[in-house]
Structures are given as structure tokens and as C-alpha cells.
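Recap for those who missed Tuesday's class. We walked through two folding examples back to back. For each one, the amino acid string is listed first and its predicted C-alpha cells come directly after. Nothing is annotated here on purpose, so try labeling regions yourself before you check the end of the notes.
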Amino acid sequence: MFCTDQRFMKVAGPFINHREFQKMKKIPHHNDSVYDHVLNVAYQAYRVSYKKGWDWESTIRGALLHDFYLYQFNKKPRWSLLIDAYNHMVNHPLKAYENASKHFHLNPIEKDIIISHMFPVRVPKYKESWIVSLMDKSLAIIEYSQKFKKVVLGYEEKEESYQKAQ
């Protein structure tokens, strides 16, 4: 989908090919990896920004880096999971910004996209930040529902094969 969009790839290519950015391929997120998630968010937000005549290049760059935190969040059930989840929700945009600013030059829109994508924790200042936050949430819902279907269908397939064996 986005690989054939030359305008998108011209901006996204240097990020996609960056050694640190590639690390996101190994970090699970929602239904796939952080890498896949940020590419999807960036492409969908870019499509809206371009159509509206907004700063679509900053939209792409900020969206690609919005989850550039480079650690795996431990979601295993334990007594501190809710506290850890809250801390991750509040702190991962700051860690993503810290990592992004080490490896890339960021303009004010890109910084705001990264810092404020977890609205309502922080309120976005720019329309480009709003669209990335909205796409992030929309795609997260889709990705989690796909994961739920895999889990449910996987269970159903096991149940059907068990019944056929009897």
C-alpha cells in the first residue's frame, strides 16, 4: 500500500532504513510490531494531511517516530500491571521523543506529534498532531480487534479439530 506511494516513501525512506528504526520490527505492539504500527499510522495520517493541504511531511516524520521508545512493554499479568501500563502511557512519548531527537532533527510539529500522541495525557497543539493521535487510536482499535479475532478463532479451530477427532 504505502510502498507504491513515491511521495510517502521519499519522506519515510530514510527513517525506514535507519538502523535504530529497524529495531522496532522486533518489539511486539497491539497485533504485530511497533514498526508495522507506526508505518500504518504514518501512512493513514499522511493521506489525510496531504488531502487537507497540511504539513504532510512533518506528519509522516512525527508519526513514524511517535512510538520510537525502543523497549518492550511487559503486559504479563502481575500485581503492578495497571501501574506499569499507566507509566508506559504517560512516559513512552517522552522516551520516544528522547530517542528520536538523538537520531533525527525534529521540527516543532514533529516534536508535538511525538509528545502529544497519547491525548488526553497531553493536548496536541497542531492539526497534524491531532490527526496522528486520532489515527493512532483508530488503528490501535483495529489492531487489537484483529488480535482478539486470532485468539478467538485460534480457540475455535482447536475446539473444532478436537470435536472432529472424536
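Example two. Treat it independently of the first, because the proteins are unrelated.
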Amino acid sequence: MNRKIIKQASIVNEGKIIIADVLIVGERIEKIANHISDERAEIINAENLFLLPGVIDDQVHFREPGLTHKATIYTESRAAVAGGITSFMDMPNTIPNTLTIELLEEKYAIASKTSLANYSFFMGINQDNLEEALKIDNENVCGITDDGLYFNNDEGILANYPAFLEKLFSRSETLIALHSEDDETIKKNTAFYKSIYGDAIPFKYHSVIRSEAACLMATKRVLEIAKKYDNRLHLFHISTLAEAMLFDHQKPVSEKRITAEACIHHLWFSDIDYDSLGAKIKWNPAIKSKEDRDGLLKALLDNHLDIIATDHAPHTIKEKSGLYTQTLSGGPLVQHALTVMLEFYQNGKISLEKIVEKMSHHVAEIYKIKDRGYIREGYYADLVLVDLNSSWKVGAHNLLSKCKWSPFENMYFKSKIYNTFVNGNTVYHNGVIQDQNLGMRLKFSKIR
């Protein structure tokens, strides 16, 4: 049986940093102690390295099935583990959209054969499949979502259909995760800028078209309905400070009925970056002002926002090239998400303990994931070793997402992912993927 000892790592876990050994036996952590000896174990010298729980990313678009020219579960899980992400939850806007239990299980079957990271898949929800969506098994599926889906040939997400949300929230006993923007505001703003620029709208106006008002209006609408039914609601990719202030920051995350997240791109970039990066930072919701960017980080630190995600949504470089109205929204982020947050630590903006809380502990709490998200005896050995003193440059030669581009290309970072362990197996070591072992299906508590 697989036996490893990670020796003398600086373990970042549950609000503390301690230097200790970690014994892994099989898939799980067997012992954490000052010094551990085991003649049968592989020894991993982790002096001067920091050991973190593996990152759990609750929002990715790995594009399989149907869009595999952009990405596959295999290619993107490789990029994920190289970035210290040991578990992911994938969105339903593949082709066909994941709107039936049968299609949902087909995605699980693909992942069981190809994913290097642990995995779960959201069930899609639209106005036509309510009964089917409510059939999901809470212990085996992370939740239901409308993210990336469209309804009745409209450009609408569920935040724009309050009557349907009433019906959904009155009946659901699972976690509902929503994308929240107001369609009418966006349509009106788009028409205005098209009347001036045609299809060649400068990318800097993306944040004005998909404006703070569009986000705030829709988020308020959704929150009002969710509070009425005390449902378990999670809001994806909050992009404005005004929205962040709508969320409770006093309760422990395990007691919150409504939770929310920030995404890497909204924390790192601002509207001043559109001039240099253009479509490469075109996301929905849009990257907004410097005040929003800085405000989101503060909202994370004071617990208005609960977790950090990527919204990893790769497109080919061709799909990201051209005029504003022709380019698709989204981009690859899983390989660099933890590295970006470690850069914030290097710049004195967040502690290592808080990074771990927002990228691992709280994600496990929000989704009630069994035996993951912490470095604890008896838990699965999903771990990442990081070197905080190893500068490197993001370049085409070291990009692992299938789309082979990144908004971080040519940037330098001070920290490097050294080792990633999934269920006790080494899947990444110092630049090399080890893909002989696969991840597992995530399990959850029945009561959400």
C-alpha cells in the first residue's frame, strides 16, 4: 500500500502554521506529528516548503462533452493539479447541456476514466426541467445551477425569471448556485455602444455594458426570493463591491444559508487592463473598476465573501480574437489560481491561513464535502506543497490547458507549486505530470 511521509513541512491549516511530519497511508492522512518514522514509507523532504490542503474549485467549464476543441476533462484536470487544485466542480453548459440525470452520469463516467483531480458535476436547471433537476442525489452531486445555460431561446439566466425562482426555491432541498446579471440592462447598454461603434466596441466598455447596476439589480432580486424560503443559495463570481456588501459577514460559513464567492480574474485585473489585454480578460460578469477589484479582496478578508473560485472557461485563441461582439467570454485560470493568491500573500495583502480558508476549508464547508478541504488525520490526502522562494515566468512552453494561452502570459510570480497529491498519490512534481492515478467522485452530506 502507498505510504509516504512528508517531512518537516510548514503546514498551513485551520488558522495556524506548524512544522510537522504527515504520514499518508493509501488514500488518507494517517498521522500528523512532530516526527514520524516508517521504514516502509517514501520520504518527501519538505523543509522550507509549505503544505496546504488541496484547492477545491467550485466553478469550472471543462467543456466535455461536445466542446472538446476547447478543452477536455483530461487536459484541464492536468492543468488543475499543476496549479494545486485537487478537486473541481464542473458546469452544465456542455453539448448537450446537462439537463437530465442520464447526461449528468455520462459526464461522471468520462471523468472516472480521465480526470487526474477529484470531481463533481452540477446538474443544469432551466424552466423546462425542474422535476428532473430536483431528482439529484445530494450525497453524489454538488448542486444545481443555471450557469452558462439559456432558456426558451432567450438570453436569460434564472435571475431574470423571479416567478420561476419562487417555484424552484419553494421546492429545492439542495444547493442552488446562480449567475446573477440583469439581461435588460445589458441589452440596453449593448445597443447603445453598438449604435456608436458597431461591432468594434472597445473592450474597455465591457465593464460598462455588463455594469455594476446590471449585477446589483439581479443579485438583490435573487437574494430577496432566497431569503423568503431560507433556501441554500450560492452566488457565483461576485464582481462588484456593492454586491459583496449585501452578504452576511458575521455568521460562520457553516451556518450561512446564503454564500458567495470571488473569482481570481476579478481579484487580479481591473478595467485599466482592457487596453492591453482586450478579449483575453473578457469574462461575464465583467472585470470592473480598481475600486471593485480592491473591494472584493477586502470583502473576502472580512467574510462578506466566503470562497475563491476560478470560473475556468477556456476558448481557442481564435474564439478570443476579433471584434468585441465576435469574441467569446471566459478564459483559462486553473493552472495559475493558487499562484496568483500566493502573489497576493507575497505582496502583504492576504495571509496564507486566509488563502487556505477561502480556497479549501470554506469550499468544503459550503458544499458539505466529506473528508476533504482540511489537513486532518483520517481525511483524504489531497495536498499541495508550495515553494514561496522560486520565481518563474508564465510562458507558452509551460501552459497546460488545451487552449494554450493565458491572461497571465509573460508575467512573473514569486511562488511555485512543487508537489500536488490527490488521494495520497503524487500527480504533479516540480513541472512533471504523473497521470497513472485518477481522481475520485466527490461525496457530500445529504442535508444541505
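Answers for example two:
Residues 54-367 form a domain with the TIM Barrel fold (CATH 3.20.20.140).
DSSP finds 13 helices and 20 strands in the chain.
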